[in-house]
């Protein structure tokens, strides 16, 4: 799929991450819509506060964190910090976050 001009020069690690996200969304049937949405978000990402404001329901907040944790392999300080801030902003209990993190790590390990 074609990248818009501002995204054509993505660093290799971001291009690879974008590809993994699109592959996962494509498997769920969202290929074309996902590419457009992802490109918009990469150009002008929503803040964690904006995400939290969109999801007032506590159960759905846990689902948002779970989706983020499955999409992100927290192997850098920035990724770990993003997930920590997301969990805090969503108001998730530390025990729940720990459970989600453990389950996601198990799933990623295959």
Radius of gyration: 15 Å
Kindly estimate the percentage of residues that lie in beta strands according to DSSP: under 5%
Q: Note the overall shape.
A: globular
Unreliably modeled segments: 1-6
Largest sheet: none
How many beta strands in the DSSP annotation? 0
SSE series: HHHHHH
The portion of residues assigned to helices is over 70%
Give the count of helical stretches.
6
Oligomer: single chain
Q: What would you call the structural class?
A: mainly alpha
Give structural notes:
The protein has helices at 12-27, 31-43, 48-54, 58-71, 77-90, 94-109. Helix 1 runs antiparallel to helix 2 (31-43) and helix 3 (48-54) packs parallel to helix 5. Helices cover 73% and strands 0% of the residues.
Structure summarized in a few sentences:
With 110 residues, the protein is an all-alpha fold.
Secondary structure: elements and pairs:
Elements (H helix, E strand, L loop, with lengths): L11 H16 L3 H13 L4 H7 L3 H14 L5 H14 L3 H16 L1
Helix pairs in contact: 1-2, 3-5, 4-5, 4-6
Keywords:
110 residues; single chain; mainly alpha; 73% helix; globular; 6 helices; disordered N terminus
